[in-house]
# Entry
Amino acid sequence: MAREGPVLLSARRGPSEEANPRAARLSIILTSFTGNLLGAVLTFFYFRFVDRATSVAPVRPPEIAFFVVAFSALVAFGYWWGRAWTWPLMSSAGSRDPEVRRRAAVFPLRIATSNAVAWAAAGVLWGIVGPLLLGQFTVDGAIRQMFGITCIAGAVSTAFVYFAVERRWRSILPLFFPDGDLRSTAGAVKFPVRTRLLIIFLMASVIPLALLGVLSYTQATALRGADPAAAIGLVGSLLVLILFIMVVGIAAAIGLSLFVAASVATPLAELEQAMAQVEQGHLAVSCPVVSHDEIGAVAEGFNRMVHGLRERDFVKETFGKYVTREVRDEILAGRIALEGQALEVTILFSDLRDFTPWVEASDPRAVVRDLNAYFTEMEAAIRNHQGLVLQYIGDEIEAVFGAPLPVPHHADMALRAALEMRRRLADWNAGRIQAGLVPLRHGIGIHTGGVLAGNIGSAERLSYALVGDAVNLASRIQGLNKTVGSDILVSGATCHALGESYELAPLPAVRVKGRSADVEVFRLM
# Structure
């Protein structure tokens, strides 16, 4: 799977114009002020012009002055309270301090709480204090105004402020939680999606219907003993009440519904985009966790899943450095039995000549660098012909063709690899000679035979290895290159297994250590 550069979503872009704490603070202040001012104006208009029980015409200058002073005082108090609580957030964006992160997690709820307290205070100011100062106080009017301001207008305005602030704050929240660990923060209040939808249902249907029912019942009761002229006035006022509540209720329901829909749809859309990126193979992607609810939990789970995929991809890529990609994929897919198999394979051993004198005469760092370069060239030749390098032993390479994946004509593949190794070494030595370095020589021995192949080692560490006389014989044949002055020797068993024609020169049969019978050996010209 491809491992490319980061593919991050918008909420994780860092401190930009969108994710700027100071800009967000100004936007939140303006949003809160606008929402509360609109709610205050509508409430004032309702109780002074719509509700006959509290309306007194005409509106006098002292009432307007009281409205301006009281509203300004509430706004100033809310600004002071909010600024004292939120200033550490604006001055410490990105901080890992637990208290700062806790405040960031509950910021929208804190703003909504202060807003609700302000509306409760407004109910007292406009229901009791204002009427007393203006000489308009009645018990019935005070109850109606306190209930309407605090429970109806205050609830709607507080809900509007909460969802508006939360929507803006979501662009800032990832600055404090870059790892998406919002749910692990102590004191973070969970606000489930079900609760959000329930609030909107109450605001959009239950409260307006209940209010209409109560007002209709009150007006109908007043009609019982009213004379015809008064009855006409009551019916007219009832129509005005119904029209006002319908217009304001529909507008509030649409606004709140849009906010709640965005609070659910936006993170889901970002999650969908992140899933599409993962589907395309981009694992350097993460989904911002912007809420402490079910959607936030899904985003956190998605990020954990992607992190696991990145780790798996890293292991897979690392594993691919030890075996060929084809072998890696077969092993990971479980299609290769690693507990032990008897196989017919071709084994290749390669060993550098005059390695010890070269090491003693060279700088250790240069030796390691050159040895790694040599191994890189030789392994590339082996991989190109479906071979697997089993291990590096000092300056020696052990490779196999035909295991763990079956390879048709594995003897031919081994000889092709040996020829490419010869060619690559010549090209590599040409560069060394130009650099004033000593060229290197190697010997290669190839033998075909039966082996036991599987994972061999301790309980803590295993390696895929071959066991059997064929392995020892391939190593012995490689050593014969020093005696006959060749660079590639092939056993008779390999020669008989070849399916293609190669220029092979037979050598006198030799007896190698560990075997009682002579061994046929051929020199690859």
Notes: The first strand starts at residue 341 and ends at 352. DSSP finds 15 helices and eight strands in the chain. The CA atoms of residues 184 and 292 lie 10 Å apart. The chain has two domains: 10-310, 338-524.
